[in-house]
Amino acid sequence: MSILTNAFKGMDVVRDRWVGAPKWVQLVAVLAMVSFFFYLPYLNVLPFAYIRTDLSSGGTDWSSVLFLCVLYMIVAVGLNVVIGLAGLLDLGYVGFYALGAYSVALFGSRESVVTQKIASTFGLSEGWAVPFAACIPIALAFALVAGVILGAPTLRLRGDYLAIVTMGFGEIIRIILRNSDWSGGPSGVIGIPRPPGPEDAAGRPFFNGLDVERWYWFALVVLIILILAVRRLENSRVGRSWLAIREDEDAASVMGVHAFKFKLWAFAIGATLGAMSGLLFASKQGIVEPNGFALNLSFLFVAMVVIGGSGNMVGALLGAFLITYLPERFRGFAEWRPFAFGVALVAVMVLRPQGLVPNRRRARELEDRKQQAEEAAADA
Amino acid sequence: MCGTFLDTPSEFGKNYMDFNNLFDHLGAHTLDGLTKGSIYALVALGYTLVYGVLKLINFAHSEVFMVGTWAVLGTYTVLGVGSGSGLGMVLLATVVALFVAALASASVALAVERIAYRPLRKKNAPPLIFLITAIGCSMVLVEVFGHVLRYFFGPPFGRAAVSVPSPIQTTTLFEVGGVGFTNVQLLVIVGAVVMMVVLDTFVNRTRLGRGVRAVAQDPDTAALMGVNQDRVIMLIFVLGGAMAGVAALLFTIRFDLTKFDIGFLIGVKAFTAAVLGGIGNLRGALVGGLLLGVVEIYSSALFESRWEDVTAFIVLVLVLMFRPSGILGESLGKARA
Amino acid sequence: MRRNTRYGFGAVAVSLALALSACGTTDTDGEGGDDAEGLTASIGIMGALSGGNASIVIPSVNGAKLALEEWSAEHKDFKITLQEFDTEGDPAKATPAATKMATDENFLGVIGGAFSGETRATKGIFADAGLTMISQSATATDLTLEEPSPVFHRVIGYDEIQGAAVGKYIAEVLGAKKVYVVDDSTTYGQPLADKVRATLGSAVAGSDKTQEKQTDFSAVVSKIKTAQPDAIFYGGYAAEAGPFLKQLRDAGVQAPFVGGDGLYGADFPKAAGEASEGAIVTCPCLPSEEAGGSFGADYEAKFGEKPGAYAAEGYDAMTIFLKAFEDGATTREEVEEFVDNYEGEGLTKTYKFDEKGDVAESNVVVWAYKVQDGALVADQEIALG
Question: What is the band of A371 on the pLDDT scale with cuts at 50, 70, 90?
Fold first, then answer.
């Protein structure tokens, strides 16, 4: 117990030092970190190589695990906008992830009913499909529209009602994809396009199933761009409005913040980030199945954001990484992993409710609330 | 959304919307739906009680129900009852199973409160934290029955579905207008309604119940008036848990089944039912549960079972759009004092 | 306080320096020597080894283990290891495992995937690496017929064959004129039920689609009661078939209940209880007592239970790889060539893969099993064609 709390304290200390460090130190450190992340797939020097997942028998490919981590980090950045910044509890986030995945599948794959229908309707040549690059705006547009369509009627609901309604929408998307013929039914869609690229020395496409580090780097670049974009948004008028809404919606409205409009923005931006991640997932995977987008993935996404420290992007990133990475690293524990995961979830939340790397403002609020509770207890 | 299933007629489905089936057997479908909804309603009570007092979605409640089904299985196994048992034995087993399941579920609910929620309440943590803790508790409970107990004791624990051989044989008691009422259906519906009435009376008529309503209305004032808040909170978890235990017994009598992850879907539906009726409102749980059960069965009859969840959620969204706090509104605290 | 940060920065710097110089590595290359005598290599087996579907996969893993153990006892100079990769049946978790096997030169063959979804997601990766797959239980038709892969083989008949056989069984052996066909809208149940529907043609009296995790089947049961069929086919898994069958019998529907290989194994009688008595389960797998030799007894001696679903198929898949090594294959190309041209008698059938990776339809066996006293008992072989 004390080891844990000490470790938590240590993290706080590092944080404080970080915030106090000069700008150039921060810049250099960030650059060093980023280059380190790009280098990670090749990290093969003992003792650091023990973080790799592919050393033990039955371990999985290290680059593939890293790729999955980055995908979920993109999800966490997006969901953090919805939950952490705007304070909207979205339990159906996997629906947007599924939308992104299915957009590239349905429009980009030659095997999908949708492309075949388009090709036959417009007399296009056999095997026609939307190229990968064009699938990205399609997926993002779909997610944006879906975010607005789902958000418009539901965002007027209060917090907990929003949770159940979003959960319902997540399930509705999955079930419709499973039950409909145009989406390939329960077997889903195969033949999803990969990002274009030159052929490598072995004559394989640049993005293939063997050299997964290339996928990882690609996803990492996307992640970094999205982080920078969301950072800017966070510190803009929009970000401050979200904050105001989260703290006290009525007060914010009185001050002239159009709460509904900004909530809808948060919802839609979150949706597009989720779709982007889903698109990368589908493209790497080559197939999509509706079963891959079940409700418990939504819960996992929320857990990533909250464990890391809701409202803080670094926290959300760390939470996503740990929740994706640890079960892969400790595959040796086989059937015990979900049990251990549950215990860890409870333990971390009880010991550190503000999350691993909390938003500073949030941590202070929490400290205030704790004190209030203690005072109330003392009074009684 | 309707377009989706109308556009995609399966090759062998005769017609996609089977109105004949729905209306020819409307009575039977309604009865089936009420039976299904009764179980939702009882589980929904647990969500509604906790939400009414703590403004907190207790996501671990689904597993409280799951534990109850295993308690029923355990009771039958220990008593050695089966389909061939005599009437006395059947009655005894059912009553014992009722108490064992209620006790097991209530203990689990209480344990979740003490281990996971109370430390957070002391820190006055925001609701989101409770949600994640509850998900963690759910995973732990699911894995205890799916893996940990199997590791130590072997089957019947584990990932496979297990039959819970109910000693009560399904027989049709009487027919009204071509609708056969079976003993199991009547037992489930009557059992659920009786439990609801008992709970409603308890909350509205007794001293302890008054404490529950007081805390739900205004925790601070209630504390000043000398209501022990912790005791009230423990009480609502125990009550909600016991109701889930009763639901578990009725569920096994109806479906003869348990499984380590059986709680999840029923939990989601019961929570939906609670919101539908007006979360925090006991009578709302009954109305929401029964309505949801009937809607699901109607949609299964009209389309196919694979669409029932979509229908359920669409009904929820529609209801919330017109009545943002559910059919009966939220009112555990505001119930007639 | 200050020291903490220094350590932090220091650690990053040191790790970077170490990493960039790349002095030591943990690669285990070079161990897979190709001595003329013997060979050190790995065979991977992937499938759901944990989670809800593990009980369908683990017997085949055990079968493969048994084959390897028996063979290794006679071929002491070979060091073949079987590495297990748990996918939880989820294609998303299968691709990292597949990439690991594909990029690790020690692997000369893969048994799997156990399910069709994960196989669909990984066979491209294995094809890129030229790594031979022999699946013990992936039965989706499209894996070979629509999207054939040069490295994919399976030791089992696909859904189309099973579906046709089931349809024939229901029509001819049960003599049913009106059949109600239900599936669970999964990637397994739906195609199988569709093939049964197609085979039965006009004998299909009605059709419905349920979903996974469903427990209340009263609406379906009511439809079936109205249709009064002579037989009911269910394409799905045991967890749903149990309550479905129970509710059917409670409602007084006594028509024979037929299920596909998703119900094969001990789970179905356990989930359905007494209602399962007399239910029929078809499976393109051979009863262990028919498997010949001592397989059934050996398996029970080693693992303490009767061989479950696909145990003999797992054994056969492993045996084919081992025969390749015996034949002198030491590279992936040689293994692939050997498997493509392999002809031989296995426990369950005669193997000779066609260019798409299937065994000849005439060599596929489909058996009907009946639940008797809570256990599946082999009833009869269903004649194909």
Answer: confident
Phi, psi angle pair for A333, to nearest 5° = -85, 0
Average pLDDT over all residues of chain A: 88
Radius of gyration of chain C (CA): 24
Instruction: For B255-296, write each residue's pLDDT tens digit.
Output: 999 999 999 999 999 999 999 998 888 999 999 999 999 999
pLDDT of residue C22: 41
Spatial separation of the C-alpha atoms in residues A319 and A298, rounded to whole Å: 14
Q: Does A181 touch chain B (CB under 8 A)?
A: yes
- Measure the CA–CA gap between B203 and A211, rounded to whole angstroms: 64
Give residues 187 to 246 of C whose Cβ lies within 8 Å of A. Answer: 187, 190-191, 209, 211
Contacts of B192 (CB under 8 A, 6+ apart): B38, B39, B41, B42, B246, B247, B250, B286, B289
Contacts of A208 in chain C (CB under 8 A): 128
**C18, A289: Cβ pair inside 8 Å?**
no
Side-chain-side CA neighbours of residue B117 (13 Å): 25
Q: Model pTM?
A: 0.91
| Alpha helix (H) residue ranges in chain B | 2-7, 19-24, 26-54, 61-79, 87-112, 118-122, 127-143, 149-153, 183-205, 207-217, 219-224, 229-255, 262-277, 282-302, 308-322
| Structure confidence at residue C335 (pLDDT) | 94
CA distance C22 to chain A (A): 6
- Residues C222-260: tens digit of each pLDDT: 999 989 999 999 999 988 999 999 999 989 999 999 999
Among A94-98, A376-380, C282-286, C349-353, which is the least confidently predicted range?
A: A376-380
Judged by CB atoms closer than 8 Å, whether chains meet at A210 and C129 is answered as yes
Determine the Cα–Cα distance for residues A175 and A192; give it in Å rounded to an integer.
21
Max Cα distance, chain A (Å): 79
Encoded amino acid at C13, one letter: A
Sign of CA dihedral C376, C378, C380, C384: positive
For residues A303 and A326, the answer to whether their CB atoms sit within 8 Å is no
Collapse the DSSP code of C350 into the 3-class scheme (helix H, G, I; strand E, B; otherwise coil) and give the result: strand
Residue of C nearest to B309 (CA): C211
Which residues numbered 160-179 in C keep a CB inside 8 Å of some CB on B? none
Quickly list DSSP for C214-244.
----HHHHHHHHHH--SEEEEES-HHHHHHH
With both helix axes pointing from N to C terminus, report the angle between C54-74 and C311-326 in degrees, rounded to the nearest 10: 30
SS3 B182: strand
* DSSP character at residue C359: B
Task: Write out pLDDT tens, residues B178-208.
Answer: 888 999 999 999 999 999 999 999 999 999 9
User: What pLDDT is attached to residue B332?
Assistant: 59
Q: What is the ipTM of this complex?
A: 0.89
